[in-house]
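Example 3.2
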Amino acid sequence: MANEATTTSLNDLLPSIVAEAMFQAQEASIMRGLVKNFALGANNGKTVTVPTYPLIAAAGVAEGTDLANTAIATGGAVLTVSEVGVMATVTDLALRSSASNVIADVGKLMGNAIAKKMDQDLIAEFANFTGTIGSASTAFSAAQIFEAVARLRQNGVSGGDMVCVVNPLIAYDMKAALTSTLNGSEIQNEAMRTGYVGSLAGVAVYETNNVAHTTGDSIGAIFHRDGLGLATMQDIQIETQRDASLRASELVATAVYGAGTLFASYGFQMSADSTLADA
């Protein structure tokens, strides 16, 4: 019938259906859990000094002979905290007219942004490691991990708590080689099923695009947990502030932390070039 009320004629009265918010893909933060963490309390200044002790050696002595004194002098790695932050302004009109929780969505974006910044600051410390394995003209391989572990062990670094962090384009070459050469192995099967290499030579391999790359060239690292440190005075905090004259709310996300190198000899930079084209 011509007089029926339909969704076309009553269109202005029907609410729109708003789907769950979609966020642009962002790599998860991983570095914080892979390094030594220190808490810096309020009213204690902006630095944390981490005492470092040298190796000392014992020697055989003859009975009745006095021992020679061994001088022990500590060093110190200093971690200095500073603020990082991001702010956005959301108007009252945007809040009232939006069917989604704008404050929650923007807050999530801000939290992710600070976590990414924290990862990048820790990754920047890779440049302080004293040696480099591989080069900008070679593909990443499992052999490079075994070499790094051997050199770290030779430096006296414990075999436990070692990790490797590289760009995904770099990790591809090692995974591709493993799936084609380690026939029937547990590592090969896992790499083929899930793309996760797992542990090689006791080293957990992590991939993150927070490791910078240029046309495939990239410098990651293999290191012991005690090689890098993160001092935190204030964890990620998100606040809102009302601006009445603007008819809006400011969202401010901040964190106070500092990244630093504790032992430069506890890691190696891993330089490699991916065979994948990087458009």
